[in-house]
Write a structure and sequence with these properties.
2 copies of one chain form a homodimer.
Chain A lengths: L3 E7 L4 H11 L6 E7 L5 H13 L9 E5 L3 H8 L4 E4 H13 L16 H16 L14 E5 L5 H12 L3 E5 L2 H6 L13 E5 L2 H11 L8 H18 L3 E3 L5 H11 L8
Parallel strand pairs in A: 1-2, 1-3, 3-4, 5-6, 5-7, 7-8
């Protein structure tokens, strides 16, 4: 087992090839030995270099390399497909099917996918990142009317990375605000975010993991103790319930899953493009 | 034209379906009227609700909706495939081909793709984000030995969003450092980053766009004037050439393309997983 090299290749960024190939490879455990991402294979010379690299990446006793590709250029695709590999090209497999299903020819244009086609969408993502940075951890509170969502939770529950992910990936304007001890003691939302209740989304986490994360920050502190974390987590979940704020326990899930759940709950799918 | 609704659906996050479908749809301009991302279709009831939503999303005079899906569960996939749509399921199309090519059965496990399988990879991404935030804009300089890459450039060339994207998406430890007027006048690199020259990557941009971006920040300032921007851009490119630092003009490209180019140039492909 573990005997194949995986290549993700494209005449553009190879992001789609990598996402596609990653998803599929998770269904075949123990196959992958190593992986290479090769973007911008946009000339014949580069395609030929890639072929050599693929062919050189294994010996006869090993499994042939697997190549996931998304070439918009048919000639370059054909060159790479000639290498000694198991070859899956997303565009080759779908474009002609889609042309017939949609009764429309494809444009065959390179770089439309992750290129800068839609300038307004690119800029809205950058703006969203700037917003997320300015409105991180309750640093600023004057423009919450611009927020699409405001993440809330006790310290170290992943509010900042989630905010940045939503901003960068989807252009969603995301602020985040900490729930502090005094909020928990009063069992009430911080005053600054009360008027924006329908934008709130709570993050929570297991007390054990929270304690472990906080230990890295301030080892041996009461802040990081399991007891404090248990109390804060149970109080904040009670607060979310009481105030009817949707929330998610992020202990065992990825940032992509958190983001997907927030978009779904807050109905943010159609905002960004 | 513009007469079809596009759905991206999955029993998990639908990220792969969305990436795949987005890439393919860019080759068919003018088809898409609106789009919906529907993640977590993981019960029969949800699948049936989705079918109703798909069927209700058009009238007979319009084109049938297009559904891009990635169901690991065959039963749920079959329910959704029965809706009145053009249906493309990535897993259905590839998994059996791969099983035969690899002579290995797939695991058919849900949520492996963007789920929290590899805890160390998840945590390294969060760590990378924390690093990027701490080492943003030269704020800290004591742990550059931990950086995988240090982005350099004059003010407002996209260093911060690019750093965060590399960190969040790939777990690449990315610092960034500004090139200031005095560096440009001396035509030398800032002292703090000189010892880490092989980690540097430069970002540059057209003077016109730079001026426009800076105008938003400080309208009418000398800092934002076209003349200042022209001087800074030409000086910084000269500096990059002289010091032999790879750099990229980001004027007309997306953050995904910038990231792909940095990973390629700095050979950062195999770092993160």
């Amino acid at each position: 087992m573990k005997n194949r090299t995986i290549f993700f290749v494209s005449d553009r960024t190879a992001i789609t090839a990598e996402t596609l190939g990653n998803s599929l490879m998770t269904q075949f455990e123990g196959v992958e030995r190593e992986r290479h991402v090769v973007p911008f294979v946009d000339t014949q010379a580069r395609a030929e270099t890639l072929v050599k690299r693929i062919n050189d990446s294994y010996t006869v006793n090993e499994g042939r390399p697997i190549v996931f590709s998304t070439f918009t250029n048919d000639n370059l695709r054909e060159i790479v497909a000639e290498s000694d590999c198991i070859f899956y090209d997303l565009f080759d497999d779908y474009i002609s099917r889609m042309e017939s299903d949609l009764r429309q020819e494809s444009s065959h244009e390179v770089g439309k996918s992750h290129g800068l086609i839609d300038k307004s969408s690119y800029e809205s993502r950058i703006r969203a990142v700037n917003y997320a940075l300015e409105y991180d951890d309750g640093a600023k509170m004057d423009r919450y009317d611009q927020a699409d969502v405001i993440l809330v939770g006790v310290s170290r529950t992943g509010k900042t990375p989630t905010s940045l992910f939503l901003a960068l990936q989807y252009g969603i304007f995301t602020a985040n605000f900490p729930i502090t001890d005094s909020d928990l003691d009063n069992c009430s939302l911080p005053r600054a975010i009360k008027p924006h209740k329908r934008k709130l989304f709570g993050l929570t986490i297991s007390a054990e993991q929270l304690s472990r994360i906080r230990e890295e920050r301030r080892p041996g502190s009461p802040y990081a103790s399991l007891r404090t974390c248990q109390r804060e987590v149970s109080q904040v979940e009670e607060l979310f319930h009481m105030e009817n704020i949707p929330f998610l326990n992020v202990t065992a899930i990825s940032i992509e899953e958190i983001a997907a759940q927030i978009r779904l709950t807050r109905d943010l799918d159609e905002i960004h493009f």
